[in-house]
Amino acid sequence: MNESDREPIITIALLAALADGQATPEEKAELEKGMGRLGVSNLESIAGRVAAGQIQVESVAGGLSGDDARRLAYETAVVVCHSDGPANEKETRFLSELRTTLGLDASSVASVEQGAAAASGAPVTSAARIGAGTPPPVAGLDEFIQQQAIIAGALELLPEGLANIAILPIQLRMVYQIGQRNGQQLDANQIKDLAGTLGIGAAAQVVEGAVRKLFGGLTKGLFGGLVGGATGVAAGAAVTFATTYALGHVAKQYYAQGRRLSTADLRALFARFQDEARALFPRLQDQVQAQARSLNLQSLLASFR
Fold first, then answer.
1. Looking at the structure, do residues 181 and 253 belong to the same domain, yes or no?
2. What is the pTM of this model?
3. Beta-carbon count within 10 A of 301 CB
């Protein structure tokens, strides 16, 4: 992977994130913040040109250095388009046009498309094999939330880009199970609305993770100040751990109180629990790494089908 591939792949990822035409200003802001954490200094310019339709796939694809870069660009776009659910008609059309532009044979990328579709279409109410089983009673939810945060953080450490798309189903199922234990009957849209209120953007989360995996080794020094001074994908594990941990604890309080917390209260709680998670992560980092070593991504994706 060449440094010259960095901007074209990031641009293609942003094009994919905006392909459905439904991104809200909040989602775009989350994308910018996530990319800012990666040290992309000209993101505002790129994002603005993408949003204004001033950047075309053909011109971006021409800047990629070779076959490996073109394949990685397409795989990244597939993961992004499936980040918040199965790709819709606009996203499917975008991916088809991108694949043609990049000169990729459909059979050569079928496995990543199938894996992304399986993860994105996973029903919230079913249980994946990893971390599955009956959730604990309300009194044991703290341990359950920590376990799910460790699993989500471990997914960031896996080298495969598809691992990032498995994070959201883990988070959504965690919230669903917490709600169940508090007597709440929830659907996927209600859970996604809670995540959106807290500023957890599916596309932003996936774009940031995918780009970090591709370029973490080429952007040393851009991740300073994160938990434990971690760099590259390790920083991603810390961020995802904190996000998942905070989401779980907010959900626990929110549903225990009959969903009566205000948006301001929810966001304040989320910030507090993120701080708590950042302090906790260094003590659990070895567990996250051990979980990553034992994870089988293909088995996890198969459990989503």
1. yes
2. 0.78
3. 23
